Each structure stands twice: as C-alpha cells, then as structure tokens.
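In response to reviewer comment 3 from the previous cycle, which asked for concrete evidence that the modeling workflow produces usable outputs, we include below a single protein chain processed end to end. The sequence was submitted unchanged, and the resulting structure tokens are shown without manual editing.
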Amino acid sequence: MKRRTVGVIGAGASGMMAAITAARQGARVILLESNDRVGKKILATGNGKCNLGNRKMGEDCYYGGSIPFIMDRLKEFGTEDAITFFKGLGLMIKEKNGYLYPACEQASAVLDVLRMELKEAGIEVVCGYKAAGITAQAKGSGFVVTDGSGEYVFDNVIIACGGRAAPATGSDGSGYRLAGKLGHGLVETVPALVQLRCKETYFKAVAGVRAEADILLYSSGRILAKERGELQLTEYGISGIPVFQLSRIAAYLLKEQKEVEIHINLLPDYDENALEQLYQSRLMLQGGRTVEEFFTGMLNKKIMQLFCRLAGLHPSQPMEQADERAVRKVFSLCGDWKVTVTSTNPYENAQVCAGGVPLDEITERMESKKVPGVYFAGEILDVDGKCGGYNLQWAWTSGFLAGKYAGGREDYRSV
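The workflow returned the following structure tokens.
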C-alpha cells in the first residue's frame, strides 16, 4: 500500500498530538508551524505548570455548538487515554483534587516529551511556515498547501492552528481564514477565560486584593451563572478563576450590547440571618470604637476602607455618631457588591477563544463535511472549556481523532 502523506498545520497541543497519532499509523507526516518553534502556548498553561487534564469530566465543563458531540468524542479518547499517552512518553503525572499536572510541575516537561516523540516518530517539523491556502487537487488526488512561496502536497490535511487567544503564541485567527476559503462558516468568536473590565472608577484602591467569594452574573435582572473561588481585584476590574469561568457568557452578552452586572458576595458562608447576627454582635462588642476600628478584622483592610467610603463613613468617626443606615450599607456591600462590566480584556490576555468552525460542519472523525480529506483539531473548532485542564484535554482528544482518521487506519487505537 502507498504510504499516506499527512500535513498538519499548527504545532500546538492538538497539532502535535495529531501528528504523532498519524505517524504511529505509518503515515508520513509534515508538521507546519508559523512560529520559530513548536508548542509555545503550552509553556504558558497552568501558570507554567501545565494543567494537562482533569478526572472530572462532565457536560458542565464545556461550551460549544453541540455538547453531546463533544462528550462523545471525549469517550473515544478521554482523560485516562491522555494519561496513558503521556506516561508512554515518559512523563510522570500527579493529581491535585482531580487536576492533572506533570509531577515536576513544569509545562516545559510536557513540551519536551512531545518534541522528543515528534523526532522519534520521524515527523518533519517545518517552522516559520505560515500556511496561506489549501487547494484540493483534481479527482481527489490530495491537497496543495502554500505559504505564498513554497508548496507541499498531501493526501490529507489537518488544520490545528488555534483560534485567536494569545496571538503572540501564533493563534492569530489564520486558521479561520483557511477554513473560510474551504467553504466553512464561523461561529462568532470572543475572548474566554479572561479578565473583566468594570465601569466603576475606584478599583485602583483595591488592586491586588484576593478574597474567596461567590460571583454571580446578572443580565436583565436575571442570574445567568454563578461561580465560587478566589476573586482577584485589578486596577480596572475583576479577575481570578471564578471570573474566568463567567467571562465567556459576559463576552457574548456584551457583543449583543446587553447589560452585564456582577454581584460579589465576599461573605459567601453567611446568609441574610447570619449577616444580621454578625452586625449585631460586632455592634455589641466593638460599638465603642471608631468606624475604622469597628470594621477591622472582617475583610481585607483595603476593601473595608472602600466600602466605608462608598457608604459615606469616615474612618476616624466614632461609631456612636455613625449613621446606622450607612453602617448597614457596609455590611450589605460585603454580601452583595454590585459592579458593572463594560468589556473583557482582549484576545492578548485570554487563555482561550470561544466560537470557531461550527461542529455541524465536521464529522465524528473530525473530517470536514465540505471538503473530505481535510480534518480539524483543537481551538479552531467551536469548543471551549472551563479552567481546569479541559481545553488541553479537548486538544489531546481532537488531535488524536484527527490524526487517527487522517492517518488512514480506522482500527487504530493504541496510545
């Protein structure tokens, strides 16, 4: 049988997985990367520790055009398959509450074992090559990929060049243009897993503060989503994992010019009755102090100073002279601090990109329904996950399946 030639465009997580999988079936694989080296984005994942997967895998972990489609693909190559794959490359893995990391907690180790396997599998890696077009040859005889100056001819092509998030790592949206030239549509994209900018002008006073909180996203007076975790305050708004989890929803609402309001509960374990009891007990025990002293020991000092200012209280004012409504307003702010979101940070700050090539335009084999022989993998598709290793798991899953079928052996399963 003629040895199949597969071209993989994009040497990120999904592209490298696709290339390795196709090569393990005996295909001749050429990996085309626009950057000067492969896997740049991997080095930034998990704050440099690379959260490469998660044992908790449910429908609530992903967004996209078809959650059943996503979950079915994850059944074909899931968390345990990814663990087996990386252990086979020599990577030791450890788990923290279901979150999977390299034992050394270095993202560079994940990239290193992938690079070694690319070499071991005999995959030709061409860096500095920015694919500009894919042309189908006559009578199904393959595809020509060009960057405007040089051409490659392949039997099958895998497009795995990312979305628009973190464009400095190579995800500049060029994959969408390639897909568009082949007749594919695009689900409108927005930054996801990203910080939110707020209308209020006082955030510089609390920048750098971190606090456990419940974060609720409202629009048109309705709660649309809720997360709990460590809130991080910046000079322009809010950040932290719970904010990242909500950012996709906020981004699409803002794109539709809808109002987005975030309600922050900095005392998430206190219900309304418990908050009233807290007020009464502090009034009894610290009622003879100044306003600043009265609130000392509740939340971060910067936050309490801000809330007192918003309530119209002066720090040196004796509590006996403080207006009760103003004092109660401070307690109310602790339990329900409302801020208005005006925008997300741009793609440069986003961990992933929501939207992409519609899932109803590809088959279960990750193959284009419009141009058979072209496959897709990774973030270029309309799939994005929450924080916690879910986006990398989608990269491993979609890359494996694209490589498996583009490589030509449908019975291939070994990792």
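The CA atoms of residues 161 and 175 lie 6 Å apart. We consider this sufficient to address the reviewer's concern, and the full set will be provided in the supplementary archive.
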